[in-house]
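Subject: Sanity check before I submit

Could someone independently write out the structure tokens for this chain? I want to compare against mine line by line before I put it in a report. The sequence has 207 residues.
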Amino acid sequence: MISHTGIRAGITGGIGTGKTTVCRIFHEMYGIPVYYADEWARRLVTEDEELAGEVRRLLGEQAYLPDGSYNRPYVASVVFENPEKLAALNALVHPAVEKHSLQWHREQITAGAPYTLKEAALLVESGAWKYLDFLIVVTAPELLRIERVMRRDKISEEQVRARMKHQLPESEKSDKAQAVVNNDGLHDLEEQVTRIHQLIIAAGQKK
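---
Independent answer below. Compare away.
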């Protein structure tokens, strides 16, 4: 359902597909504000006192360092060996990010933005896409994605493939999308962004 305060579009895709690059084009060409959900999640686990309290109750005081900062190595060591704890942590963080991103969206629309973009790697996996009005999925061939991530993060092919296993196949994400960006290095990204921008503007005019 389209929000009374403007369209909320989401953008997602598997690791290495180039979501950030596509978001940058939306912002540079049309001034569209982008909410980077994963970055905000990292901030909110510290800055949102209610969320931080719930994380402490779930994972213990060791989840935070004496200075109050988030103890990422400790949390990672706990949740990635315990799927139930990881699911419970996500069940705390994802709603907090959704609440914050909705407030941010309303502020951007009030300031004159035609619509907003919410970028997240697990937008479909978390179910957060259901709260949005328009979903964009960025795709790219698997071998190209692996090459990009190996170069970007200085990690092995095996490590990249291990990360990929935690994400849904591109086809499952694309099935839920209103638009797909093909970032295979052959299709022009700016042309694709222009077409999708026009689709979102048209959808906003129909609401």
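---
OP: Matches mine. For the report I'm noting this point. Strands lie at 7-12, 34-36, 115-119, 134-139, 179-182.
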